[in-house]
Known about the structure:
This protein is α/β, with parallel strands linked by helices.
Amino acid sequence: MAKLEGQLSHHGASTGKYEAHELRDGDKKRYGGKGVLNAVRNINDVIAPEIEGINVLNQTEIDEVMIELDGTENKSKIGANAILGVSMAVSKAAACNLEIPLFEYLGGISGRNIPTPMMNILNGGKHADNNVNIQEFMIVPSTNDFIKEKIRMCSEIYWNLKQILKSNNYATSVGDEGGFAPNLKNDEEALDLLVEAINTSGYKDDFSIALDVAASEMYQDGEYNFWKTKNVRTTDEMIEYYAKLVQKYPIISIEDGLSEDDMEGWTKLTKTLGDKIQLVGDDLFTTNVNRLMEGINNKAANSILIKPNQIGTITETIDAIRYAKCHGYNVIVSHRSGETEDSYIADLSVGLNAKYIKAGAPTRSERTAKYNRLIRIEEYM
Length: 381
């Protein structure tokens, strides 16, 4: 039971309010209220009797049965964690039945692209107990090397960053996703340190930078409160701030640059920077086709972050990926800050031909499991 609880309990420290509901027990005497015995019970007593006997290859049918069983918009009755656990298990069982790798089952003969890592190597925001506001500072290789070489290069930059931090008497403890979490003079210093680490590693022309601002966490009364440094910005000031950063640093992607509730601002941001960089909706879209449709209609963002536990079934996850691609949006498959060693998203990213994958820093097993799986898939190919 403990192992199953672990598999059902991963989620993010920073979560969007439009995500599907993770069912927790609320018993403060067990795992601080985060236990999932009720979700496990729902799998055994509610879901299992309804799907028993359905052909395991009928993924969509099984997922639809579970969605109807729950009957709520955000899967709060049975729990998105219970439903997703079953949905993932069904796809894995189907792949085993056909004796093919999971990525091949999910994508068929067309699933052949190994995504480029967007590797988080410095943490801030809710992912770290430091004074850095921006949640993730990522490095992104731009070479056409094999994935094992991209991971090697990223790792070298990561460890060189550690030495640079040490030389500046900064802490080298890590945040939720394995990136270093020092106290710095400001957020721009984090970018300076990344550029220095890239250059020191000899990869000046081979890497770019990506940010996850997690701006929904800062949004209060129509303004953005950088609570760690007490700065307050309007939407227009946020857009101006990003434009300056993009001009100064080799930034190719900004995720959640504005709040999930600031659609008008997203439209302005996309009009200003959408033809220059990747603008990624995470909290904005929550892997939800309906929210993505709204974003497309408002010309908001040009890319989507995909997290299966934001929506709750593999069928809905695949629908979101396909819909995004049909409308020219880039796809980034992502981990969560509260991860397990399950490597499912590696297979999903390859099978559905995602352009990028976020799996965290090249350290700690819940992160490296995804990178190791990508290497194995590449070797298999």
